[in-house]
Amino acid sequence: MQYFYSSNIINDLAILNEEESKHCIKVLRHKLNDKIHLIDGLGGLFLCKILDDNFNQCKLQIIKNEDVVQRNFKLHIAISPIKNVDRFEWFIEKATEIGIDEITPIVCNKTEKLKIKKERIQRILLSATKQSLNATIPKFNEMINFKDFINIHKNNQNFEKFIAYCGTEITNNLKSLYSKNSNTVIIIGPEGDFTDNEVAYSFENGFNAVSLGINRLRTETAGVIACSTINILNI
Amino acid sequence: MQYFYSSNIINDLAILNEEESKHCIKVLRHKLNDKIHLIDGLGGLFLCKILDDNFNQCKLQIIKNEDVVQRNFKLHIAISPIKNVDRFEWFIEKATEIGIDEITPIVCNKTEKLKIKKERIQRILLSATKQSLNATIPKFNEMINFKDFINIHKNNQNFEKFIAYCGTEITNNLKSLYSKNSNTVIIIGPEGDFTDNEVAYSFENGFNAVSLGINRLRTETAGVIACSTINILNI
Questions:
Q1: Among B135, B132, B123, which residue's Cα sits nearest to residue A218?
Q2: Residue of A137, A166, A216 to mutate, testing the B interface (most B Cβ within 10 Å of its Cβ)
Q3: What is the CATH number of the domain that holds A31?
Q4: Whether A130 and A218 share a structural domain
């Protein structure tokens, strides 16, 4: 099974962009009247028929709205970018495959990487969404300062709020504190972890400290474990 | 915290190999009489004093056996190699960080990659073991044929046995079938999945089908999710 993506859908007509058109017509050799599956990236999944197999601008007719399994919880992970770009992009890909709604890169005191190639990230998000047969592309937010992120979320009563870090004093793990079906936002720190001031600031503003297991985890592994913990607990 | 590794330990004396010696003395600038932590890769963790800070052959005296948290379950994942070597090596690194005892590469009908750089894998295993502050390096077995693997494990009553694949008929997930504190072996298929014959053969020999969630996962992602599911359920 293969999903195609278009943001250009009006009523029951959709147009694939150049890249998707080439992939559909040239690589996968679809032809006029073939039936294919299309997502709009916003949760819509459609069965379509190819109306025009132009490999630069493939036109589709929507035949049917397909049912999509809706998750009944929201997961938002805020995570420090990582010096090694591959590791950060790997987190983006895996979190998208496993299931995540929103990702925010945050600048912490020890964050060393301050630039993100947003266009590359968007391509990874789209590719992993299609790969995992999801209909919704996770939202990737602008980079924001750690304290600003806390301030925005401190009064949000619809989300359980956690900060995951390596402190040896943490006795609670994410599994034991998280309530099934709840929306949650989890903050993951940089290489070298959060400073004590950052941890204290998060506590003052309603975030709970959690560990993600007994092993010391790299930033990107912590992000993936947080993501998979929430998804596993909601099965 | 930093762990060093030696396989050359006799009584209370240990010698670091050239690479570990250079890392300890040249990169991290440790000196005579400094105290450092050493693992033997087999579960032993020791506090040591540097007896000779030769950067080609650093000698250590073991001062104390440190306590190591012992997990009370064994996890063995058998997984098909992946065409993209990075993706397979990424699985090895992440499974080691998260917690795994044994990994076996298996050749399935649709496995395309038949060679593995074992020396590279051993380096990744060691590096991820030290990174995650574990004392035991996971065992990486020789590549083996799918059916041979099944035959070896079919009568092993000490392990719960699962096969994870994408079949839409699977109603059980790993979380619901796995019993906490149990030893388990989980088989993960190649890109393109197992053949019907392979699945049937595993059923005939005591393996249970499980899904790893609602999303379609790449091979390496499935491996990591299987690994994190077992670790999370044992918290």
A1: B132
A2: A216
A3: 2.40.240.20
A4: yes
A87 interfacial to chain B (CB closer than 8 Å): no
Low-confidence ranges of chain B (pLDDT < 50): none
Q: Report ipTM for this prediction.
A: 0.92
Is B97 in CB contact (< 8 Å) with chain A?
Answer: yes
A53 CB near a chain B CB, below 8 Å? no
Q: Is A86 contained in some domain?
A: yes
Backbone angles phi, psi at A160, to 5 degrees: -75, 140
Question: pLDDT at position A28, please?
Answer: 95
Q: Which of B44, B65, B86 is the last residue of a domain?
A: B65
Residue B235 with chain A: CB contacts under 8 Å: 173, 175-176, 213
Pair (B39, B82) in one structural domain:
no
Give the closest of B69, B217, B218 to A214, CB-based: B69
Question: Is residue A70 one of the residues assigned to a domain?
Answer: no
Are B94 and B143 contained in the same domain?
yes
Tens-digit pLDDT profile for residues B110-147: 999 889 999 999 999 999 999 999 999 999 999 999 99
Does A217 reach chain B within 8 Å, measured CB to CB?
Answer: yes
Q: How many structural domains compose chain B?
A: 2
Q: Are A52 and A15 in contact (CB under 8 A)?
A: no
Please report the pLDDT score of residue A165 as a whole number.
85
Q: Does B216 touch chain A (CB under 8 A)?
A: yes
Q: Any chain A CB within 8 A of the CB of B69?
A: yes
Q: For residues B93 and B48, state if they share a domain.
A: no
Closest Cβ–Cβ partner in B131, B224, B232 for A175 = B232
Tell me the C-alpha to C-alpha distance, in Å, between residue A225 and each of A91, B119, B164, B232.
10, 27, 19, 9
Cβ neighbours of residue B102 under 8 Å, at least 6 residues apart? B74, B75, B76, B77, B138, B139, B140, B141
d(CA A105, CA A116): 9
Give yes or no: residues B80 and B61 share one domain.
no
Partner-chain contact A94 B228, CB within 8 Å: no
Q: Which residues of B touch A224 (CB under 8 A)?
A: 94, 224, 228
Q: Tell me which DSSP letter residue B27 carries.
A: I
Which CATH number belongs to the domain containing residue A166 in this structure?
Answer: 3.40.1280.10
